[in-house]
Amino acid sequence: MRAQRALGTCLSGLIFVGLAATGCTTVAKAPLASRNSSKSVRPTKVTYNYTAKDRDCLKRAMYFESEHSDHDGYMAVGSVVMNRLTSGAYASSICGVVAQKRQFAPGVMTRTVSDLAEPDLEQAASEVLSGERHPDVKDAMFFHTEGLKFPYNNIHYVTVAGGNAFYEKRGLDGALETPAPLPAFEVAMNYVTTNTVTTNAVTTTPSPILLPTGDQIPVPTLDPTTTASISAVPTSTVAVPAPKPLVDGAAVQPVGFGRAGG
């Protein structure tokens, strides 16, 4: 009996120790994520409208500002144009940005673009309008010919491409001195035809002119309070001459009165 009691005591102790050890090493499970938790919402893209003319303006800027260089130079200039467009500090259209006075190369809107450069320009323009940017231009909205030096403290160079040095304007604290452009992933370019009205990146189509139908045309009516009364029955009689009396079956001739003298 003593042996059985001792064995039972030992087994009870082992079970208690095992439970205690298990309780000490148990890790609390993380609560399950709520099924109703809201999903992360991506920001809505800002849409800018552009026309075939805007596309041509973009190609012209890339071509003349990069000195007809290469794809890398085209993309760098195109990125600057888009940075200016989306910063809000410049014009609200691509042509407005490119044609701004004293900003881009003289004659950028009128000079002739070589037909040989058209394929490369078309490719670069398509890439820029679809959201691609030069990876090193970043927030730069300014550039000058490579090799030139200026004594300004706010010039922050980011890259050199197509014979140009691109830079951002930053203060001593490192902050941009100009409104920051939108990141490419927040911008959507929407092609519109020339007969669509575009204002500040909002597309509005002119409404058709509606003409009234036949049953909608008002018919004027006479107002008895403001119009003169018209009577169908004459208010006065008209004298009708009586027939001439007959004398012996013949009409009496009128008597004539001649002037006295001669």
From TrEMBL:
Domain Cell wall hydrolase SleB: where? 71-167
> Which Pfam family is one of this chain's hits?
Hydrolase_2
The secretion signal range is 1-20
| GO terms of molecular function | hydrolase activity
Q: Which PROSITE patterns match?
A: PROKAR_LIPOPROTEIN
What are the record keywords, sorted?
Answer: Hydrolase, Signal
Top-rank taxon:
Bacteria
Q: What is this protein called?
A: Cell wall hydrolase
What organism is the protein native to? Answer: Rhizobium calliandrae
